[in-house]
Amino acid sequence: MRREYKEDEIAFLKEISPGKTYAAIADAFNVWFRDRDYVMPHQVKSAMKYRKIPYSGHLETAARHVPVGSVDAAPYGTKKNGERYRYEMVKVAEPNVWKRKSLLEWEKHYGPLPEGKIIIFLDGNTLNSDIENLYAVSLGVHFRLNKYRVMKPNREYMLAAIKIAEMEDSIKQLKEKRKNR
After folding, report:
1. Quick one: how far is CA 145 from the chain centroid?
2. Which of 97, 121, 150, 155 is most buried, by CB atoms within 10 Å?
3. Are strands 79-82 and 97-100 parallel, antiparallel or unpaired?
4. How many Cβ atoms are within 10 Å of 156's Cβ, its own excluded?
């Protein structure tokens, strides 16, 4: 569902956008309108395109340099999180290669994440990368959890909802298999 922007928000986007990246615009927007819904850079991008607000953020990125001591110039194992990040990230390689801490934790205990699976957080807190809080589900199960809006911050509730979604996904696959015979 597309977010509806108010007149003052659109005026703010027009005023602040020249020479800034979508991420910088989103950060400024979230600070200025902190009492409203949080927006991500891709939402700012689509809002600006939809309303034909000119974008020249590439000018800022062309001259960008990494200051000494910044997160981008950090050594391996550095962690970053905060308002801009939904997940805790860990630097794993150069130049500037980051991985979600939850994925690293999963790989440490169970090996690589299987193809077509994603990790969800049972307590709803994406910064809690404890292995007891992580659960790998298929994309079909994840779709059902979101479709029925059952992503709740309750471990027992989530485990039950996952089992129901897995059964529904299995039934759908069996029906498709029978149909294709």
Report:
1. 16
2. 121
3. unpaired
4. 9
DSSP per position, 116-152: TEEEEETTS-TT---GGGEEEEEHHHHHHHHHTT---
Torsional class of 77: left (φ above 0), alpha (ψ -120 to 50), beta (otherwise): left
Q: What predicted TM-score, i.e. pTM, was given to this entire model?
A: 0.55
Q: What is the pLDDT of residues 34-64, one digit of tens each?
A: 777 778 888 888 888 888 888 776 544 444 4
To the nearest 10°, the Cα dihedral for 136, 141, 142, 145? -120
Q: Which residues contact 121 (CB under 8 A, 6 or more apart)?
A: 102, 128, 133, 134, 135
Instruction: Give me the phi and psi of 87, to 5 degrees please.
Output: -125, 150
d(CA 135, CA 18): 42
